[in-house]
Amino acid sequence: MLASRVPVLLGIGVASRRQDDWRDALEPIDLMNEATLAAGMDAGRGGGGAGAATLAARALQGVQWIAVPKGRWAYEDPAADIARTICAPYAKRILTSVGVLQQTLIGEACAIISRGEAHTTLVVGADAGYRLLRAQIGGETAPERPCPGTPDEYWRPADELRHPAEKRAGLKMPVGLYALLDSAWRHHHRIDLAQHRQALAAMLVEFSKIATSNPHAWQQREVTEADVLETGPRNPMQALPYTRMHCSSWNVDQGAALLFCSAERAVALGIAPEHWVYPWVSTESNHMIAVSARADLHRCVGAEIAGAAALDAAGLASSDLDLIELYSCFPIAVQLYADALGLGPDKPRTVTGGMHFAGGPYNNYQLQSTARTALLLRNRKGRTALVSGVSGIVTKQGFGVWGVEPPRDGFIHRDLTDEVAREAGCRTVADHYFGAARVLASTVTYVRGEPPKGVALLDAASGERVLATSCSERWVKQLEQTDLVGTTVQVEGFELAS
Predict the structure, then answer these.
(1) Which of 159, 245, 413, 420 is least enclosed by beta carbons within 10 angstroms?
(2) Domain limits at 311?
(3) Do residues 479 and 444 make contact, with C-beta atoms less than 8 angstroms apart?
(4) Is the Cα torsion angle 327, 400, 316, 298 positive or negative in sign?
(5) Does the bond joining 174 to the residue before it have cis omega, within 30 degrees of 0?
(6) Contacts from 226-229 at CB under 8 Å and sequence distance 24+?
């Protein structure tokens, strides 16, 4: 690769608003535009002179490719609105659906620069969940202004994120499926229920402390283990062992923009090299297996393969990393990625405070976490960093390695999907089953206005997987109080037998 084509992160923009009256809040497209303009000004300040605004305009007008991950909004072509805002009318416009890794967008934004297909690219996204929530509380609906048009490309996942059996079991929200994975991981590591809950609470206490030093965190307050563990109206159970505090805070109004350009373009703009942050490696796996069909529930094969490939390409061991941000929608995602990377217990898992405290805007968090990580690198709070991403129920895995110096071998972008497909086992999930089956994972889900529901994923004597449920008080209490993973139970159809 020509040195002039080395991609650099030149501008970092973050937008975060908290308005209790939804009418005063920005809608998502306006958060995206605010973050984009902030990224431009951030780049402009790297020129070292008084003309930061002029330099920002030049940097943004040069954008040739814009990618936006879809949030909880209905805009048809948000990149077109952003292109008009920054006076870049000829930029190629990309929209990606839920189920596409945000690391895919970041990796491609850098890869097309390294291939010489563009000199400036932009990845930007936002969601305004708090605005939606405040309107809902008031019995109203927050409108969106139109963003009409058709993007040049629309990226979508190749398959469904959930198995039909999971939908039938009522596992509509991710928390129940993540809780199943959590129980399998805990059982594999031979940790009893009480110890595990204590360990999860301790992890969140540490995350909350880190969030207090993140100026963009949604919640900047330290919590105690009791705050995490004690249930109540503000912290109800979601899916055993998770209370609301264990879950991502997705009702937030946040956006982020990452402005990339080639080293040659950065020099032409007059932006000092000490302002640059270098993407070194982007790896991903897009092999999709529904939770119920995964051969190994206690590990993430895709994270193991893509994570190792990222570190190997960067010439680093996990112990060499100065900054680490593990995707943290639920605690088990952190645990699986830490295991995959071989992180020791002394290595902090987040620089943001995690999605529980920093905020987890829908389908946009990795842009937020990458922005925070890059700012810390630029301020020399470390020299190397790894940021990970997830799509679905740890269904897809992505890793970005970053540094303050140019990458040793130029930017490397690798898709490990085929390798993961060869290594990751897949099981058949039965529509129904009658007889004895061994419990592989279990949880209890709690939905407002509905009775608690016991859920168990089982290995049947036939060799198939079975997902069985029960709302009986006996089963719910047994699953809440006893570790049934590894035991044998009776199944009738797709119900736990009473």
Answers:
(1) 159
(2) 3-160+250-423
(3) yes
(4) positive
(5) no
(6) 228/200, 228/201, 228/204, 229/197, 229/198, 229/201
Fill in the amino acid letter for 479.
L
Per-residue pLDDT tens over the stretch 267-285: 999 999 999 999 999 999 9
Whichever domain contains 452, its CATH number is 2.40.50.840
Give the model confidence (pLDDT) of 96-120 as tens digits.
999 999 999 999 999 999 999 999 9
Q: Are residues 367 and 492 in the same domain?
A: no
> What whole-number distance in Å separates Cα of residue 256 and Cα of residue 123?
8
Q: Which of 350, 366, 334, 302 is nearest to 71 (CA)?
A: 366
E strands within 223-290?
A: 237-239, 242-243, 253-262, 278-285
- Strands in 250-295 per DSSP E: 253-262, 278-285
331, with CB counted inside 10 A (0-12, 13-18, 19+), is buried
Task: For residues 241 and 348, give the distance between their C-alpha atoms in angstroms, rounded to a whole number.
Answer: 22
Token pair 């805009």 is found at: 75
Which residues sit opposite 58 in a β-bridge?
A: none
Same domain, 416 and 471: no
Residue 173 in tokens? 């929200």
C-beta of residue 481 within 8 angstroms of C-beta of residue 457: no
Please check whether residue 257 is in contact with residue 126, taking contact to mean a CB–CB distance below 8 angstroms: no
Strands ordered across the beta sheet of 396-403: 323-325, 384-391, 396-403, 278-285, 412-415
Residue 421 has which token pair? 């497909």
SS3 state of residue 162: coil
Distance between CA 426 and CA 297 in Å, rounded? Answer: 11
pTM above 0.85, yes or no: yes
Secondary structure of the chain: what % helix, strand, coil (to 5)?
A: 35, 25, 40
Closest by CA position to 175, among listed 125, 245, 73, 99: 245
How far apart CA 322 and CA 402 sit, in angstroms, is 10
- Of the residues 423, 448, 474, the one at which a domain ends: 423
322 and 457: one domain? no
Q: Judge contact between 350 and 326, C-beta under 8 A.
A: yes
The pLDDT of residue 1 is above 70: no
Whether residues 383 and 477 fall in one domain = no
CA 183, CA 291: separation in Å to the nearest integer?
13
How many structural domains compose the chain? Answer: 2
φ, ψ dihedrals at 488, nearest 5°: -110, 135
Rounded to whole angstroms, the Cα distance separating 368 from 279 reads 16
How confident is the model over 367-381, as a mean pLDDT?
A: 98
Residues 279 and 321 in one domain: yes
